[in-house]
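Worked example 2:
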Amino acid sequence: MAFDPKTVINIATNEVGYIEKHSNSQLDEKTTNAGCNNYTKYGRDMHKIYPQVMDFPAPWCDAFVDWCFYMAYGVSNAKKLLGGNFDDYTVNSAGLYKKMNAWHTSNPKVGDQIFFNNGKRICHTGIVYAVDNNNVYTIEGNTNSGSGVVANGGAVAKKQYPLNYNKISGYGRPAYGNVTIENNADSRKVPTLAKPTLRKNSRGQEVKNLQEDLNFVLLTKLAVDGIFGRNTYYALKEFQKRNQLVVDGIYGNKSMEAMKKALGL
């Protein structure tokens, strides 16, 4: 079984237009509370997963890439695909691919992580979503739609560059077809996917499964008590919002499919 790069590209595409925030508020809204202080949901979520390395608030182009892979494939699988770990310092992030012999300086492929330099060092990154005979097309965080590399632009945007653009340092190539898929074993060995349909006042083992699933993918600390109460309801709505679902607090088939993807199942 292999990973499909379209999964991470679709997630990244859905984020186009997101703007960083003025403060640590309304981080999950696309354009509300716009500012230039490096507050984003990408930085927040990756900092929760790996606070020793993923800073928040901080420049967030690499946190955006890591977040997209995390949302697409789960924590364990995302780390494997990204060279073995998460790192929001672009120099180190590129170095992970180099250590894995997955670094390329030409012939980009869809799903690659692209790295740019400022003439001194690697300084910016994004995800390759298309390539043709002349250009490479990317989705990047902390940039804008202006031409050339914009390494602190404050938004998620689509960009394009000539293949011979001198500020492209290279490409990290995730091993989409060459790694063993894990079921997000970072916090529990075998995730038990909750079955639909669950809603407020539901009770039982399926609600416990849902609470465990939400704790795992959202890094929340719901009580796993089998009672679908207020906290479970709002956690589910947050999950639905992050996955571009109808935000109704009802765990149905579409929410289950999104949860399955988030758990890497």
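The helical segments are 5-14, 41-49, 61-73, 75-81, 90-99, 205-218, 230-242, 253-262. The chain is about 30% helix and 15% strand.
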